[in-house]
């Protein structure tokens, strides 16, 4: 049966568009389906998310051709990181200079990355985009897979890649279970202007009920705020007027950057950990939030999704160049074995950090703060942690090793 493309990608977020661009560069024909309607630039809804992008993820965005489309005024970066505990004197510092790297990572608005990837994708002739195309059924036809949309249109390809987020329609249609653990927490996000310059330092203070992060943006006095707390506390913070919130925010951060002089509209979202029981089925693969959701305390969510993309595209390319069928389950299982173990380790590592810093019983704060100071005094161990977080070490796809020492 005639195929409409080599690969169908569902979801036009960062993960889906990056995947489309990379596959197109490899010479594959791609159809991208997005359930939402395409908005004109002046009508696009505001998305307040700010992403921490690792050097490895930057390499992938460079390979797609999207990085050069980002405006300089959108790319903040941090060279050092300072983490400390509200309930003690322990602290730890990371510095990219200690591993001979110019930066630890980049702080970029979600909309800037999304727009750059979409612009790049729309320039590529081997990618066809269909907006307002909500999948309603999928059917494995043996040597191909068919997806049917709400508009009664059918598309066939060798493989469907689900990049449609934590509420993935494709994952649901495939009958893949999504195991979810509710943290009973929510996060508040906004940007704030502080009296003192952030000096390109990412700062995170672990409060009793969750971490509060100030992530440095391009403006030396502007930071992206991510504050994790109990839902009732987040609701209370959302109800404050700007002056009250600014004072509360500065106090919670121990006035580390002096006073908060202004802040933008606040948004909130629930926090949970989730993982798909399987990342693949015959002719179906899940990437990014479709496969896993992680606590935002280390800013790893988008980066894990982009590593998924790089790993899956590497496997697809290795079969495509030999004119072999990359949609078979035994092929896709290579991707699942590669990424599921890595992602699961990170999911539970973040859980460990979360519960370690929230535990206030008996000697836990004392042990925790001794641990912070001990690690801070061990450069070799600190550098290992830093390299893993930056995507400089580990079982990385070949695409992410380019230009990384």
Q: What does this 3D model show about the protein?
A:
By secondary structure, this protein is of the alpha+beta class. It has a single domain, classed as 3-Layer(bba) Sandwich (FAD/NAD(P)-binding domain), CATH 3.50.50.60. Helices cover 34% and strands 28% of the residues. The longest helix has 30 residues, at 329-358.
Put the structure in a nutshell:
This protein has 405 residues and is α+β, with helices and mostly antiparallel strands. The protein is built from eleven helices and 21 strands. The chain has helices at 14-25, 55-64, 110-122, 169-173, 231-239, 242-252, 301-320, 329-358, 364-376, 379-390, 398-401; strands at 7-10, 30-33, 50-53, 76-78, 80-85, 91-95, 105-109, 127-130, 135-140, 145-149, 154-157, 159-162, 178-194, 201-207, 210-216, 222-229, 260-263, 267-276, 280-281, 284-286, 292-293.
List keywords for this structure.
34% helix; nine-stranded mixed sheet; 405 residues; six-stranded mixed sheet; alpha+beta; 28% strand; FAD/NAD(P)-binding domain; single chain
When the domains are counted, the total is: 1
| CATH fold-type name | FAD/NAD(P)-binding domain
CATH class: Alpha Beta
* Assigned CATH architecture: 3-Layer(bba) Sandwich
> Whole-Å distance between the termini?
46 Å
Q: What is the CATH superfamily label?
A: FAD/NAD(P)-binding domain
DSSP E strands, number: 21
* Class of secondary structure makeup: alpha+beta
Low-confidence residue ranges: none
Whole-number mean pLDDT: 91
The proportion of strand residues reads 25-35%
Q: How does the overall form come out from the CA principal axes?
A: globular
Q: What proportion of the residues is helical, as a percent range?
A: 25-40%
Rg calc: 22 Å
Give the biggest sheet.
9 strands, mixed
**Count of helical segments?**
11
